[in-house]
Amino acid sequence: MNEEENKDSEINRGLEGVIAAETRVGYVKGDDGKLFYRGYEITTLADQSNYEEVSYLLLYGHLPKRNELEAYSKRLRNESDLPEELFSFIRSVGAKTHPMSALRTALSYLSSFDENESVNDPEDQERIGISLIAKMPTLVGAIHRTYSGKEIIRPDKNLGYASNFFYMATGARPDPVESKIMDTSLIVHADHGMNASTFSALVTVSTMADMYSAITSAIATLKGPLHGGANERALKMIKSMGKPENVEKELKRMTENGERVMGFGHRVYKVYDPRAKILKRYAEYFAERSGNENFKTAEMIEELMINKYGERGIFPNVDFYSGMIYEALGFKPEIFTPIFATGRISGWVARTIEYSRNNRLFRPKAEYVGERGPLKYIPIQDRE
Ligand code: ACO
Description:
three-stranded antiparallel sheet; Citrate Synthase, domain 1; binds acetyl coenzyme *A; mainly alpha; CATH 1.10.230.10; 384 residues
């Protein structure tokens, strides 16, 4: 069939509503504000689980037994270090490049240290996927340190995944509350249906490209402000509004200019995002601890946005409160999206492996609305 013949097809801009694959990894019940990983509700996992266990669950489809979890956590710890060349690369770009760009390039660079990089069988995908999950906190930690003008810290193999990430990024070992909050932040970002970055990973692997390429595509896609990049901008917006009493006027100005309020709205949730609810609790905890006014300003934005747009389904999403938490934990705003990527990598890997086991090359069509030829070719010297 010709590319332009779409007589029986509708155009689904942004592929909205199109079911492009089957999955058992997780699903979003947007109308009820619920999110499930392998059938477990996110609120339960955030309260009772930890990131290593959630990562195992997403990859293998069941909660690990004690010995399975120990073996998986040990593997993550053993594979967490990076080749020296990677640290040198991060040192060379880290201070001036946006951390998401540095992360995208550094992760891609890792493939050159893998002799079997191009092999794309399920075993290789799992091997590379787990190695990338293990290395992500080290990459992001090193990028954060260099971006902040500080020395890189290597992994401490006695610490769990989230605590080690916190340690490598901030230079301090977390207290139990900080460790729980870091862990929960990674858990709530671990998977989220057929979002844009996950879809990117699937498109890449559907060509039978390798896992490094799939995750590099996903990171590149997560960078944009309509996806993962919203968290950094949401905090900037909250701070620029300053006090709660400035919010109404500023929101009015934004609405009149057609500007989007970062950290609000979602393609799937038309009620309160359950992840935002979980993170809001922690943002409030930090606000009470520090007396910082940002939380009150954020609550005012939320109240006015819900009053104005709640009926239309524009509520806070996961990106609205996460930045406040990351800042309180000692992270720079430019690292917020890489933290998102550190959580999301387990979902990317799980879905990439799942999709390629039942692979079908992605190849949608476009409705051709341009000039229909054939036009007469005019040599360059005769063109006016
Ligand atoms: N601020 C103001 N208005 C909004 C917002 C917002 N944040 N989000 C949606 N709207 C409005 C739109 O202007 C549009 O209004 P209209 O019908 O009068 O034209 C209507 O709501 C529907 O908007 P769409 O863009 O069609 O909704 P969609 O479901 O595609 O949007 C998106 C989802 C892109 C996330 C959008 O809500 C947005 O731009 N939000 C801000 C960026 C953001 O927070 N991104 C993070 C998303 S969560 C994540 O990726 C982890």
